[in-house]
Amino acid sequence: MTGIDGDVRKVSRAGAKVSSPTAPMLRSVLLWALVLAAGAFALQWLEYRFQARALSREIYIALIGVAFAVGGVWVGWKLNTRKEPDPFQPNTAAVASLGLTRQEVKVLERLAAGGWPIQQGDRPNPGGLAQYG
Question: Which of 44, 111, 18 is nearest to 103 (CA)?
Fold first, then answer.
């Protein structure tokens, strides 16, 4: 009898489909695959047990080393985290009593922000001194 998609299947007298010959083979392949996987697992487990006995001291030393390395990274991370600094608030009374100029206050603001007084983009005006003379 021909099926919907054109494949030929055996049909019993009662009209029920008979399993194809590949089903027992598939079952056999899956069974042997399971047996081989169990055997490979057993061999790996035995090898691990042998290595654990033969190299137990080295394994413990490595685990302790890894634990100290992780602890060192954690402590370093905790010690080196920095909070954002508070924004600079100039003390106008102190600026007035000291007689600081606008430029001096600007330099102090840069220092408080963590910068240098003279940065890469700041170039002195070549004719800047002429205005004071």
Answer: 111
